[in-house]
Amino acid sequence: MIKYFSVGHRLKMISISILFFFSSALVVAQQKEEADNLVQEGVVFQDKGEVDSAFARYNLALKMDRDNLAALAEMAYSFLSIDKYEEAIGYSRRAIKTHPHDPVLKSVYVSLGNALDGEGKTEKAVDIYNEGINIFPDYFQLYYNKGISLIKLNKSADALLSFERSVTLNPNHASSHNAIGRLLFMTNKVPSLMAFCRFLVLEPDSKRSTANLNNVQKILSAHVSKTSANHVTVSINPELLDTNRAKEKNNFSGGELILAVSSSLDYDSANDNKREVENFIRKISTLCEYLQETEKDNYGFYWDYYVPYFTEMQKKGFTEVFAYIAFSSSENADVKAWLESHKNEVVGFYKWSGSFKWRIN
Fold first, then answer.
1. Which residues 6+ apart lie within 8 Å of 182 measured at CB?
2. Bridge-partner residues for 232, per DSSP?
3. pLDDT above 70 (res 11)
4. What value does the CA radius of gyration of the chain take, rounded to a whole number of Å?
């Protein structure tokens, strides 16, 4: 028997279907909102170190919204923070599978790479960072973490390229400058010095700052030693005098010679009563003047990236305030007093530094 429905009856059925659809959609939206709120609560607990409370919120969020990306990402991060790498890997892969190419996955790729590295699967970690870079080529953390893994694989040259890319994408990432400074410490002292100095601008008063200020001092005194009460020895590597190196990429042999000569003046009677920070100002000023004079005749990443920052700093008259900022971690009373009495100069320096136009390519 064929049933016929009136137009009015059909419209009523359509209206009911539409109402049901919108009601279901509203419920789903409300559940997602509640799940997102739970994730935010979990993040607060995670930041306080209360990981179990964080996990409880994330699990509730996933019950409400099974593949909630924020919850999956935070679960991966939280498991990573307590060295539960297998769990971190599982949640990271689930997030990547269920939300391909979502911008949030930038940090998930970092968590996944870190977890694989934690398990000793460093080569796989590098593969994951590369996979992330293919999707998010402008995310500096992927390059930085890739660089850390490459160091573990004894691929220092490749690691250096990753750190260079990281600071290009984010000039304010202190850890990338720190990594460059440490990798170049024994091989190319002037770029190492500039990287450490940039680090000290970004992170002037921490345990790492103390260590890096010490590294700066070692670089400055690398070629100079006082052999007796009246004698100072300047030891120069013959390679620094090789004129054939003049055309080399990232050649700073001239700058290293300038530093050696300038550092020897620390022992001159005219500087006997000078404080360490005052001698530092003299040496950095001399180096910056040399870099400014020779910049146009040299090339390479460190000439193009770091040198313009330091030469402009010199031109703007910020060398002194920079030096005192760099010495913040020294706990020297004179340094602290100077910084306290020159707050406006410090603000002016950071205003300039924050607006500096870094090389980006």
1. 192, 215
2. 226
3. no
4. 28
